[in-house]
Amino acid sequence: MGRFGKLLNLSEWQASAKSPITQDNKYPKEVEGLAHQQQRQAINAKEFCNSFWGEEGYENLIEKSRVSSKMLEELKNWYKERAVIEADYAKKLHKLSNSNLFHLLGFESDGLRQGLNTLREITAKSAHCHAELSGTFKSSLEAKTCEFINKREGVRRNSQISIEKLHKKETELRVLQDKARKKFEADAIAISGYSVQMNLVQGRDMDKISVKLDKARGSIAITEKDYRVLTRNLEDTTEAWNVQWKSFCDMIQDLEEDRIDFVQSSLWDFANALSTVCMLEDEQFENLRKAVERCNTTQDVMRFIQQAGTGQELYAAPVYIDYAKGAHEDLQFIPRKCTIANFTRASYRDGQHPPQLGTPSVVSDLTQAIEAGPIKGASLHCNRNTLMA
Asked: Cα 332 to chain center, whole Å?
């Protein structure tokens, strides 16, 4: 998470700032005091340009820009994968709509044939719906996200490259200016020290100190010039930095607000697209329920009997003909005994008419399993009931 994590843990900073004062933290180091207070001070500003100053402000904002760009790329990839899933699902549904099951419709009576034919139709329509949904994900979500990314990166990239170069320049100047300051300070201290020693020594020792003093005076002329030039350059660079950083903060805030608005709208479109398909499919499922309701088991059975029945005549077995004794009767002229079938049906289905449509436990068990959530370690191809069994 890096320094950007500190931005996300601002509440922790504020909580620690309210901790009681002890002897250990009562007198913080002077050089750390201001930074310590600023780090834990609540920021009431609503603008990036008033909230991200200092080294950590730069790193936090650059990191936020990077993470936001990555998030958009991942969202685009997610839409792409979702579109592929819908396309694959549509292909499988289309194949399923041509299943061998529906090649047998001609052998069914009207009621059941109508129900199965409706099943075939809604499977084909569902395939079409999901194919169109896949296209919508690609054209209206993935493509628009890609377009938004390109537009955003076109604005962000050049500005960020410029601000990073300026930040590097300012950082390097600060290091050089601090080194020059330390050298200048060291020469000034040396000259002061040697000057004091000149009043305390005589003879050859004074000559040695005099040589060192002259050398320090020659050095300080150079270090003072370097320090002055670098300080002036740093002042100019810092002034330019403040102007450009303020402008960069404004741009990043605009891009961030645009990103949030775009993602909100995109997710809304995703939900609407998926909801539309669900509603259309629910209408098709209702058509299937209506078709199934019109199916009458008794009528289907009677219709099959009327269309394919072979009669009620129950013939006796052929009589015995004794050909050894010279009998030569023609079978077609020998009358066969015939009775009319009038059996009483023996069925385990007695008392079960009319049947109840559907199995309530299927819906209740499914609802319960969905609400319970996935089981850890369970395969997505196995439902809860299968695992429990």
From this structure: 82
Best CA proximity match to 334, nearest among 318, 313, 317 = 318
* 315 strand-pairing partners: 338
- The dihedrals phi and psi of 177, each to the nearest 5 degrees, come to -65, -35
pLDDT tens for 282-295 read 999 999 888 888 88
pTM, entire model:
0.73
How much is the pLDDT for 380?
57
Helix-strand-coil split of the chain, %, nearest 5 = 75, 0, 25
Query: Kindly report the CA angle at 138 between 135 and 143, in degrees rounded to 5?
Result: 140
Q: CA-CA distances (angstroms) from residue 327 to 88, 319, 321, 333?
A: 75, 12, 7, 13
Total Cβ atoms within 10 A of residue 222 = 13
Residue 237: phi, psi to the nearest 5? -65, -40
Cα separation, 12 vs 155, whole angstroms? 34
Collect all residues with Cβ–Cβ distance below 8 Å to 29 and sequence separation of at least 6: none
C-alpha distance across the termini of the chain, in Å: 44
d(CA 288, CA 120): 10
Which 8-state DSSP code applies to residue 312? S
Q: Kindly list the domain boundaries of the chain, sorted by start residue.
A: 1-42, 55-309
Tokens representing residue 230 in the block: 């670098």
Contacts of 298 (CB under 8 A, 6+ apart): 353
What is the C-alpha R_g of the chain?
Answer: 45
Distance of CA 355 to the CA centre of its chain: 46
Q: Which CATH architecture has domain 55-309?
A: Up-down Bundle (1.20)
3-state secondary structure of 6: helix
Among positive and negative, which fits the CA dihedral 207, 213, 219, 221?
negative
